[in-house]
Amino acid sequence: MIEVENLCKIYGSTPALQDVSFSVEAGEILGFLGPNGAGKTTTLRILSGYLPATSGTAKIAGYDVHEQSIAVRQRIGYLPENPPLYPEMSVESFLYFVARIKRVVAGDRRPNVEAALKKCGLWERRKSLIRKLSKGYRQRVGIAQALVHDPPVIVLDEPTVGLDPRQIIEVRNLIKSLAGDHTIVLSTHILPEVSMTCNRVTIINRGQVVATGTPETLMEELTAGSGYELELDSTIDPEKLTRLEQISGVRSLQYLPESLEDRRQIQIFCEPNSEPGPEIVAACVSCGFNLYEMRRTRASLEDVFLELTTQQVTPTAEDMIEVEETQPEVPEPLDEKLDPVDNNQQDIDEPD
Ligand SMILES: Nc1ncnc2c1ncn2[C@@H]1O[C@H](COP(=O)(O)OP(=O)(O)OP(=O)(O)O)[C@@H](O)[C@H]1O
């Protein structure tokens, strides 16, 4: 449903995206995960047809986002990081307004608006003024405006930022309920968001894709921290400890800060899919180590994320200047240009 190949975006001389490629199958939720400034928003804006790429291609349902941008906009719903909502409009009026802006034919507006209200749990609040809604409900309105033309693809930029923990759960559940009928790309810098909501994850760092897979396969492939933690007598001979490193399946060994004066804690890192626990115990016995505790440690998605994204490079002064110089050239998304002057009940094709 979504095919992105070798996407590059350069703002002035600042490369924001470099050879970004990924694909999303119909009905999937892809988590687009990366730290601040990684290039998530840039990618989503290119996908939505609001920003041209410098090179590379992106296709939505077979349509090229640049060459066939009208066809793409009909098939994609976009929730920007700061969704433009008109606080003095009611939820329903706003959705009729957006349906009209998105050229939903007159006869389809009522069923589409009603479907979006119901899918987003807004039916009871449809007559409420947007300014009277909580932030969580306003975010639902943002998602409903992305859905109102019933697009097969929905792109959500940081959809849970600024919500309280209960609202976060509600919005995540809403997003999960939309999968299947819709293909979803969700950008986030929050790890639990990905493991709780998404089928697959693409990790992006400094404009480059550094990993793609299911949360589970990523953890298996990149087994940072996967191994054993041992607590041994502090009198052990460090020379003898190297015996543990020679065991098949053991990758490396590291001392951890000691918890007690007479104990020494050691982290053993293992190769993927290896289980050298019995050999480690046997080596401890044959070396005469007093083993007080041995614990299996497994990589978390957080370990994977940190391993892949911590090699940050501090921007040079030159980089900073380029960023400032190029900002005004970037067009604003169409959604952000919705004209509140159109907030006219006569113009809005809505029921009594
Ligand atoms: N309009 C612009 N002009 C110049 N540089 C820009 C512009 N927009 C983004 N950038 C730069 O491109 C890079 C990627 O930015 P982008 O907003 O896509 O990242 P992000 O992953 O969405 O970050 P965040 O989570 O902070 O929104 C950053 O270095 C950013 O400073």
TrEMBL record:
Family: Belongs to the ABC transporter superfamily.
SMART domains membership: AAA
Domain ABC transporter residue range list: 2-231
Keyword ATP-binding applies: yes
Keyword terms, alphabetized: ATP-binding, Nucleotide-binding, Transport
Pfam families: ABC_tran
Protein's recorded name: ABC transporter family protein
Keyword Ion transport: no
Coiled coil stretches, renumbered: none
InterPro entries per UniProt: AAA+_ATPase, ABC_transporter-like_ATP-bd, P-loop_NTPase
PROSITE patterns tied to this protein: ABC_TRANSPORTER_2
Start and end residues of each stretch annotated as Disordered: 321-352
GO molecular function: ATP binding; ATP hydrolysis activity
Highest taxon, organism lineage: Bacteria
PANTHER family per record: ABC TRANSPORTER, ATP-BINDING PROTEIN
